[in-house]
Design a protein that fits this description.
The protein is an alpha+beta fold and 80 residues long. The chain has helices at 23-31, 37-41, 56-67, 71-78, and strands spanning 3-10, 15-20, 44-53. It has one domain (3-78): GIY-YIG endonuclease (3-Layer(aba) Sandwich). The chain starts with a strand and ends with a helix.
């Protein structure tokens, strides 16, 4: 089963990074306030980036890499 890394643009113009099996379903959870605590306070607007991985471990590794990036690097990655 593939896993996806995703990045959301939130209303506060910040980016939220996570992983999921079904990005659209996870995005809907975030929008409904049932996702992460961060997206409960900072409502997501849209999915701006996805990347597919064969394993959860690979997706988590990439998530950690992206979360350690500076804001400018993340914006460059997603094309903002």
């Amino acid at each position: 089963m593939p896993y996806f890394l995703y990045i959301l643009l939130c209303k506060n113009n910040k980016l939220y990074t996570g992983i999921a099996v079904d990005v659209e379903k996870r995005f809907e959870l975030h929008k409904s306030g049932k996702g992460a605590k961060y997206t409960q306070r900072n409502k997501p607007i849209k999915v701006v980036y996805t990347q597919k991985f064969k394993t959860r471990s690979m997706a988590l590794k990439r998530e950690a890499e992206i979360k350690s990036m500076k804001k400018q690097e993340k914006e460059g990655l997603v094309g903002l």
